Amino acid sequence: MIQQIRPETERVRVVGGRAADPNADRAAVDAALRVAVGESTPVVRAWKPHRHVAFGRRDAREEGYDRARSAAEEHGYRPIERSVGGRAVAYSGTTVAFAAAIPTPDPRSGIGARYDAATSGVVRALRTLGVPARRGEPDAAFCPGEHSVQAHGKIAGIAQRVRRDAALVSGIVITTDHEAIAAVLDPIYEALGVPFDPDSVGSVARSGSTAAPDPVVDALLDAFCSGLKRDPIDVTSLLDDG
């Protein structure tokens, strides 16, 4: 994926590990952006976030937002509000998140190319695990968006944010727990007044693959970092340096 949009790239920093809590994990993503810009080198991370529900800015403006947060807590998920758009996403503890921080002098000119490369990378990674992944999503899916991947339900969603000197392409892959994720998102989306079909939630397991979260992490890193020298950095060091 990285070489597809930055053919001149020869090396990439790969972040390992999980931070102490969801907020620290999000701080690590911001730190990855700073490292990417400071070293003029892409930084890629794939990990298993702590159990929580991430609400977007649009969610926070809805009349039923407080009820949605309460629904998350009642199901044992910590509610977190992220600073970007999109709708609520649940991380069960087996959900895999990924992020690629890519330095670029003109990030807005390559938005479409980065989305295309990332979506292709996720599809390719999942297919290596026996998942019949393809682009798109079913109707009334969680966090609806154009850049999604499905196989017996929505498995992955991809987002992007740009700043003056870099772009961040990120997303999630549901590995197992699709029923549990549907169960917590159903009352949340009802409170927010957003259409949602619990049966639209897919997973690697639901598609018939036996791959656990760790093989999904490895497959994503292979797809995103193919052909590049990987320089590892632990998430704790990343936060300390940031």
Can you put this structure into words, describing what you see?
It contains 8 helices and 11 strands. By secondary structure, the protein is α/β, with parallel strands linked by helices. The strands form 2 sheets. An 8-stranded mixed sheet has the order 7-8-9-10-6-2-1-11. A 3-stranded mixed sheet has the order 4-3-5.
DSSP strand tally: 11
Question: Helicity level, as a percent range?
Answer: 25-40%
Q: Given the structure, what is the number of helices?
A: 8
* First-to-last CA distance: 25 Å
Output the helix-strand order. HEHEEHHEEEHEEEEHHEH
The parts where pLDDT drops under 50 for at least 5 residues are none
The main β sheet shows up as:
8 strands, mixed
- Assembly status: single chain
Radius of gyration: 17 Å
Which structural class matches the secondary elements? alpha/beta
If you average the pLDDT, what whole number results? 94
Coarse shape: globular
Query: Approximately what portion of the residues adopt beta-strand conformation?
Result: 15-25%
Strand order of the largest sheet: 7-8-9-10-6-2-1-11
Give the helices and strands, then pairings:
Blueprint: H1 2-5, E1 11-16, H2 22-39, E2 43-47, E3 52-55, H3 57-60, H4 65-74, E4 78-81, E5 89-91, E6 96-103, H5 111-128, E7 134-135, E8 148-150, E9 154-162, E10 166-173, H6 178-192, H7 213-225, E11 229-234, H8 235-241
Parallel strand pairs: 1-2, 1-11, 3-4
Antiparallel strand pairs: 2-6, 3-5, 6-10, 7-8, 8-9, 9-10
Helix pairs in contact: 2-8, 4-6, 5-7
